[in-house]
Amino acid sequence: MVSPKHVCVIGAGVSGLAAAKAFSARGHRVTIVERSGDLGGVWEPARSYPEVQTQSPKDLYRYTDRAMPDAYPEWPTGPQVHAYLADYAKSFGLDRMLRLDTEVAGMARRTDGKPGWTLTLTSKGGTPSNEDFDFVAVCTGQFNEPRELHCRGEGSFLDQGGQILHSSKYGDPTLAKGRRIVVLGGSKSATDIAVNAVKSGAREVTIVMREPVWRIPYFIGGLVNFKRILYIRAQEEMFPGWGASPMARLALRLAAPLIWANWRGLESLLKAQLKLNKCKMVPKERIEDGVNCSVPIATPGFYPMVADGRIKAVFGTFDHYEADSIVMSGGERIGADVAVLAIGYKLGVPFLPEAYKQKLVDADGQYRLYRLIANPDLPELGFVGFNSSFCTVLCADLAANWLVRYADGQLAKQPTAQAMRDNIEMMLHFKRVERPAAGVYGGLCVAPYHYRHFDELMADIGATTWKRGGPAGHFQPPDADAYAKFLATAPEYRAA
């Protein structure tokens, strides 16, 4: 018998909606708190920059129980994703669970002797109030709090009429017209904004990044959708995985020449297709050494604009502002009217008490999360959407289905606290020693091990099937409809 819980879901983005749906479907009472005035997280219109679109094809960026509309393009736009999320929330009654403009100011263990947490909630213009919850799902994800960058000379730059804004605030493309735009960062948002600034009539556009990185075009070689190369089991098996047996390690060593040739061939194809030599943007790192969540999609038009000079690419470290210029650490000056900081977001759970933060995050920033979802030393608490990848929605969906069963003690493989701690230590060693690229974003990146991660979650949940057989299972990308069927093979239950 599973008792109904009052569950607080913090965040109403992709992950929060997945968690709310999973808990409510099992008979729990759910409250979603969202500090913004709308649902959607990074897809909230107020946070989206012009021409934003997904990095993932629409069949990878969806929930298991709701496909995106057929009319949507292969890579949906920001407004389309927001409309999809809003429709999802309405269809499953999640919109009735929402408390918008409500922020979590703090949390502490309940003092009434019951398991759970007391959250201090502050509504817009209201006074803080304390509410008790039996379980809390943190769904703020990795794109919650914009990262700040303050450098010497910032005041004089602003006094000269310059503007400094985070990429999430670049909402009006007319801002660029006739002005010198400098974009700091090498992510897809950085290249998206640089391209948009050119199209919007900027006088000059410069992008500043530490060094060139590998970027993947939507269609590799102009023909093959990248999901059919980078998101298949066959490619995933070319990477050394965690907990590998001696036989698996031997097989990788024997296949090393073929694996090496595979990656060199992909690099050659990308160099030719994107004209990296002409752009002087050939990365120093081998592509296989850096495949993780920070490998961005190549914004259409970016490399041609660099090649013909419409976008100037500068490599190095930004040092300070000086009058109407940005000065690099090597002394190079870049004239600027607007500095767009495409430098990402701060990772963290600011409302968690310090004693619990220390249990959650190690000194080097690595998160201590079993399956990237739960920590045995943080009871009645779980995290959805911290298992980041290019299949973000599917990752959140499966994590939410895992978490509700974990919270209810209904996993087929319900782990003991010690088993969780042992697994966390093993995974941390893998990320720190065996594959450092797996340590990006606090070690919360699933890529390139999507299938390995999904297999573990589905086995824990108790699905009797979680793999497609034959060539489809080995050479096809993850399929949300298939995972809906796999989830249906897991034991059913409902709180009562």
Automatic annotation (TrEMBL):
Keyword NADP: yes
Enzyme category, top tier: oxidoreductase
Keywords, in A-Z order: FAD, Flavoprotein, NADP, Oxidoreductase
Pfam families the record matches: FMO-like
Listed GO MF terms: flavin adenine dinucleotide binding; N,N-dimethylaniline monooxygenase activity; NADP binding; trimethylamine monooxygenase activity
Gene3D superfamilies xrefs: FAD/NAD(P)-binding domain (3.50.50.60)
Assigned EC number: 1.14.13.148
Highest taxon above the source species: Bacteria
Record family assignment: Belongs to the FMO family.
Protein name, entry field: Trimethylamine monooxygenase
Biological classification of the source: Bacteria, Pseudomonadati, Pseudomonadota, Alphaproteobacteria, Hyphomicrobiales
